[in-house]
Amino acid sequence: MDNQRLILFIVFSFSLLLLWEAWQDKNAPVPVAPSATTAPATGAPTPSEALKATAPPATPSTGFGRGPRAIVETDVLRATIDGNGGDLRELQLLPYRGTEDKNQVFTLFEDSQTQAYLAQSGLVGEGLPTHRSEFQLNPGTYRLTGGAAQLEVPLVWSDPATGVRVEKTYIFKRGSYQIAVRTRVINGGTKPIDLTPYYQFTRHGEAPRGESFFIHSYTGPAFYTDAEKFQKVAFKDIQEGKADFQKTADNGWVGMVQHHFVSAWLPEGSVKREYYTRALGDGLYSAGVIVAEGTLEPGQQKTFTVPLYAGPQTQTVLEKTAPGLDLVRDYGWLTPLAYPIYWSLEKIERLVGNWGWAIIILTFLLKLALYPLSAAGYRSMAKMKKLTPRLQKLKETYGDDRAKLHQSMAEMYKTEKINPLGGCLPILIQIPVFIALYWVLLAAVEMRGAPWLGWITDLTAPDPWYILPVIMGITSILQVKLNPQPMDPMQAKIMMIMPVAFTVMFIFFPAGLVLYWVVNNILSIAQQWMINRQVVGGDKPATAKT
Questions:
Q1: pLDDT tens, 461-512?
Q2: H helices then E strands: how many in the chain?
Q3: CA distance 98 to 119
């Protein structure tokens, strides 16, 4: 395989890889019809014998009933808590704009018939409140005002027949996306109670609004334990009963992941717990954790608290919040390369105050670090370009005798000390960096809504005016012109068509990624032009040999 064919093979393989990954993630079908083994869509989850608790009988499905509501407003959150189940029904992240409508605040949790996404909790056991039970709360708006560091929203459930009282309190803190859910159980009856609280997310199985073919990431449940680490569970596997994850542990958390954002129940301490998933039908799924809090004797009370994180996938915040929570920022199979790229970008952005300029500076630094390798490749390509007339003459001499042609070409390469595959080195170097940076820009919520200059107001979204993709296409054509032209006319045409094809594809890529590619192209053109001049003007041995 000659130099041009190998370049074509590498570039098209890379393109197909991106397209295949995008298609798999975006278009893999998710069945929505309930299966025969689907757990009931209502009532509390059923724990295994490991937690030694009994499940309540299933209750008729009534959807997400509406009760009295409390609206909570902090400096970063606006939340809606419903007395029907004591659920967290809606959650808006005030510092973030909507994906489709930039004039709207971003909504994470949503009480909707088509896009339902809720955080729920309850107690397993007969006569205890579940996420279907009616809690009492004082409806209205709760605001974190003045110098207050936190505010509390109390809900109460009680059963006069059994003497059991449950107080559920949501605790919001200033500047925090972490919400503590404190539960106090008072046993005023005559029988002991097995305290087995559960915490779950109920969500539709579709990707969030604004996802596209090229800007698409994992959406679905995730679990973390010390033994098995980070485990993703696809909605499709839940529906088909093939969900594979660690079910029991005394550590870890359960989360629901989507592009740029995550929600996670984070039980604390070494408490025995069981993780579960369920297909609820109608395109809804739940993922949660059941915690064993022991037995509550008559006349006793117990309080336990589980934090809920519901917010952006900010690297530093996730690392401090819970072990392994930072793994929800999925950098793909090039994580070892992607993480230092993000780390470098973040440090540069702190200095220059702009993510766009940080990308440009990082591109310069990467180009400088890889200069010796890329220079060797460009020098090989320059020598190949210089030999093009002689190679063309060989083709005319031997005609269709390809064996003789290849033998003569090999002898010429050996005499001139040229590696015909050396020109592929710059492409081989760029591909892993490009893919890693693609995942960094895809995962980094810090760049969400981050402007560069002028028309680029969001580096994680496509260029709205297609200016960067067009510049990328023009610079790619210039690169092709600087490289040795294939002797095969068909290959030459393909090499000229490729920049156009890539321009069309890059229209849908994040602007930050296209910015990297444009800057890299410009630097590569400058480097190739300088090396071409050196080879033509200063490589005397190569010139003397004819």
A1: 899 999 999 999 999 989 888 776 665 667 667 777 888 888 888 898 889 9
A2: 12, 20
A3: 20
Tell me the three state secondary structure of residue 180: strand
Q: How many CA atoms lie within 13 A of 212 on its CB side?
A: 14
Q: Which of 64, 153, 166 lies closest to 115 in space, CA to CA? A: 64
Backbone dihedral angles phi then psi of residue 103, each to the nearest 5 degrees: -85, -10
Q: Count other Cβ atoms within 10 Å, centred on residue 491.
A: 16
In this prediction, residue 88 carries a pLDDT of 98
Q: What are the φ/ψ torsions at residue 174 (nearest 5 degrees)?
A: -65, 135
pTM for this predicted structure: 0.83
- Which residues make Cβ contacts (< 8 Å) with residue 16, sequence separation at least 6? none
Helix (H, G, I), strand (E, B) or coil at 43: coil
Residue holding tokens 């930039």?
Answer: 102
Summarize pLDDT for 55-89 with one digit per residue, the tens: 333 343 445 788 999 999 999 999 999 999 999 99
Contacts of 502 (CB under 8 A, 6+ apart): 15, 472, 473, 476
- HSE-up of 151 (CA within 13 Å, CB side)? 20
Nearest to 202 by CA among 280, 134, 123: 280
**Per the structure block, which two tokens stand in for 403?**
């064996």
Output the CA–CA distances (angstroms, integers) from residue 136 to 59, 64, 67, 497, in the order listed.
20, 17, 9, 67
